[in-house]
Amino acid sequence: MERQPLYALSAxxxxxxxxxxxxxxxxxxxxxxxxxxSANTLRVENLALRPATxxxxxxxxxxxxxxxxxxxxxETQMKELxxxxxxxxxxxxxxxxxxxxxxxxxxxxxxxxxxxxxxVLQTETGRSLYLDGFETPNGPNLHLYLAKDLTGREYYDLxxxxxxxxxVGYPLDAEIxxxxxxxxxxxxxxxxxxxxxALLSATEK
Length: 205
What we know:
Elements: H1 6-20, E1 36-38, E2 41-44, E3 53-56, H2 68-81, E4 85-89, E5 100-109, E6 115-123, E7 126-135, E8 142-147, E9 154-160, E10 165-172, E11 183-188, E12 193-199, E13 201-202
């Protein structure tokens, strides 16, 4: 796939956000078919995702790398978004008798709390990354990446974070080698902040 610098994608993403009001409600909380809003809770069910793209950049990762102005903006948006909980309750894909978990790993916090477990599942219809018992705060324009390491210099963008709590899946393209890209990163695109991560290791056969 064509490699693109993140700054170009981020500019396009922010332009889109300005037109749609997405910037302040996180991609996971955008209004789409299959979502219901009740009080400060959104529920998502089986939303289609765009294909992953491979990209290269250098990450800031931590809040300590933000300027005072950017940190103030980040904290303001976190306060606005933190109360909005996006809940998913998807079942694991495929038939249980034929479903195989090839990789798994637990989430750990970095700049923000993150918990739950990630599984790479092979089914009769393909592969997916399935987050089980997942939870992290809502945040500005959160995406899910599969990266080579925690520096995130090369990664696949799996798209907008679909839920901040619960069980949810992301289809994986056949070309993605999870052994080479084993880190699942929860990433705030406009602020370049890593919320949390999971290292996926091959399961014992």
